[in-house]
Amino acid sequence: MPFYQVFCIAAHNRSYVHIKDLVRSSALHVMNNGGVVRGVKFWGTQVLPNKMRRNRVIHTHGDYWTMHFDASPDNQKNLARIMRKDPRVIRATMLKMGERIEDVAHRTEQTVKPNRRVAEYVASLIDREAKVPPSR
């Protein structure tokens, strides 16, 4: 399954019930159709770079959020169609991050940067094992 990212600007409302419901319904749509949601990140409420018009309403503020997910192309197209029709969404963009996991994360990349203390501790353990004679 391809790996996608959706970047969404939702209409700002003082209560976050609308944004929570939008994120929940988007994630449930992906999962109910055989996809996997990898993560959701809320970027906060921000002033839009320019006034945006959607559904005969002019918006000056928006709630930014992203969602990473694995889904079939049909599932992704249906999610894009649903988000276009949803009145809470000002803008939504779908990005295909990769076809396979190797396209997104290479084997040579480290997921965690080594810490000096951890590296010294591991080196000391290796030295201790080298100094201890094997038991018979």
From TrEMBL:
The organism of origin for this protein: Hericium alpestre
Gene Ontology terms: cellular component: mitochondrial small ribosomal subunit
GO biological process, one term: translation
Lineage start: Eukaryota, Fungi, Dikarya, Basidiomycota, Agaricomycotina
Pfam families associated with the record: Ribosomal_S6
The name this protein goes by in its record: Ribosomal protein S6
Source organism superkingdom: Eukaryota
Coiled-coil region(s): none
Record family assignment: Belongs to the bacterial ribosomal protein bS6 family.
GO molecular function: small ribosomal subunit rRNA binding; structural constituent of ribosome
